[in-house]
Amino acid sequence: MPALPGSLYRKRSIVNPKPLPQLNPPPRLLMGPGPVDVDPRVLRAMSLPMLGQFDPAFTQSMNQCMALYRQVFKTANHWTLMVDGTARAGTEAMLNSILSPGDRVLVPIFGRFGHLLCEIARRCRAEVISINTAWGTVFDPGQIETAIHTHRPKLLAVVQGDTSTTMAQPLDQIGPLCRRAGVFVYVDATASIAGMDLRTDEWQLDAVSAGLQKCLSGPPGIAPLTINQRLAEIIAARKHIEQGIRPADYAAAAGAVIQSNYLDLGMVMDYWSNQRLNHHTAATSMLYAAFESARLALEEGLDARFQRHRVIGAALAEGLAAMDLQLFGDQTRKMPNITGVHIPPGIDGEAVRATLIDDFGIEIGTSFGPLHGKIWRIGTMGYGARKRNVLLCLGALEAALRKHGFRAPPGAGVDTAMRHLEGAPA
Ligand SMILES: Cc1ncc(COP(=O)(O)O)c(C=O)c1O
Questions:
Q1: How far apart are the first and last CA of the chain?
Q2: CATH number, residue 132
């Protein structure tokens, strides 16, 4: 490490810094595209005591977590486990472990996270082919089928719900058409899991990964995933156990070494198997969070949870429309848990967002790429998908817009959403 200049060493602030106060994040209502407010039960679970990673009490929790997420993913897949890291660690683990250099992958892109799949697949040195549709739309199954027959990929990698555009790609026909064509399917369900239906087995999806920080109401930092036996065999054929932990009877698999050590699903699966072969230190508190997040979703009932997201999301969208704001994208393909809305012409979107944060403590989302500066994205996810949040957000947005020069019909947003949510709990 290069030496610091002497003057910096002498500065009191570096040598003997003033103690900092305890962290005290300001209260916020998180209504962006995620992370969203964490359910207090998940926060409590995260403060439970640490356990050793081979403690039978901990490994039992791992097994229970696998069983919980089989229900969340609607699968019987044995290999349903967690990768430590944010949602994209789940994606990286999947693509690194499935795609050998030179393998062809097809990615239908309908937003930023399709581009992310391409980006990660390229770094796996796969041959990446993409098809594109305008942001705010999704693909017909026929378009994907044609591309599959033209390009004959090994894998189709697709996002279920892309928060960047708020659009959801229907998947029920995609899995079967890939199966017929002999193509594997991987789905990034980060933003949709537990907020809209996902049927891993029924829709013949070979691999799905997710994150906690959206409709599962957990913090970012762990990625639940599921892999079927067909893909588990592909991964096993590439398994190379790191030196230092190899069992006596170890024989390296014939397939290409998985580039990443941390995200090598072959080794991660060994730790999640009865062998409990050591890999990285389990992120104990994150496993507790994943456990409680799944318990909450299943306790509510997945169908009831999807319905709650639909009703709350629709109330928000109707409230926004009643404020003379224009909703973004194909409304028939909109995710239920996030709503895109055009920033009115002449209005400074960032100034409105700043007023919402500074005066109301409410965060709504900005946008990326071609939508930057054009739309806001408002999330109603998990613990945050509730009546009072919608009403607070609409009321605050009306006032913030007025401050910055846009006059919505007074009270129209809140009144419309209240009517829509008559009788719903706050
Ligand atoms: C669809 C989708 N995929 C992947 C990600 C990336 O997740 P993370 O930031 O947790 O790595 C996000 C985050 O917003 C997302 O919405």
A1: 55
A2: 3.40.640.10
Q: Are 216 and 82 in contact (CB under 8 A)?
A: no
Same domain for 183 and 110:
yes
Q: Could you tell me the CATH number of the domain that includes residue 351?
A: 3.90.1150.10
Query: For residue range 43-67, what is the model confidence (pLDDT) as tens digits?
Result: 999 999 999 999 999 999 999 999 9
Q: Bridge partners of 108?
A: 131
> Are residues 328 and 198 part of one domain?
no
Ligand 1 centroid distance, CA of 395 (Å): 29
Does 26 map to a domain?
no
Ligand 1 centroid – CA 88 distance (Å): 6
- 88 Cα nearest atom in ligand 1: 11
Parent domain of 305? 301-420
Has residue 50 been placed in a domain?
A: yes
Cα of 209 vs centre of ligand 1, distance in Å, is: 10
Q: What does the angle CA 353 – CA 359 – CA 364 come to, to the nearest 5 degrees?
A: 30
Where is the domain boundary, 297, 316, 337? 297
Residues paired with 168 in a beta bridge: 161
Does residue 321 sit within a domain?
Answer: yes
- Choose which residue among 92, 120, 163 to substitute to test ligand 1 binding: the one with the highest number of ligand atoms within 8 A of its C-beta: 163
Let me know whether 315 and 275 are in one domain.
no
Nearest CA to ligand 1 atom 7: 87
Instruction: Read off the amino acid at residue 187.
Output: V
119 shares a domain with 188: yes
Cis amide prior to 370 (ω within 30 degrees): no
Is there a domain that residue 35 lies in? no
Q: Model confidence over 260-311: pLDDT tens digits?
A: 999 999 999 999 999 999 899 999 999 999 999 999 999 999 999 999 999 9
Distance 341 CA to ligand 1 centre (A): 20
pTM above threshold 0.85: yes
Q: Please state, in angstroms and rounded to a whole number, the distance separating the CA atoms of residues 196 and 21.
A: 41
Instruction: Kindly give the distance from the C-alpha atom of residue 187 to the centroid of ligand 1, in angstroms, as a whole number.
Output: 12
H-type alpha helices, 324-386: 349-355
Q: What residues flank ligand 1, with Cβ below 6 Å?
A: 33-34, 86-88, 113, 159, 162-163, 188, 190-191, 211, 220
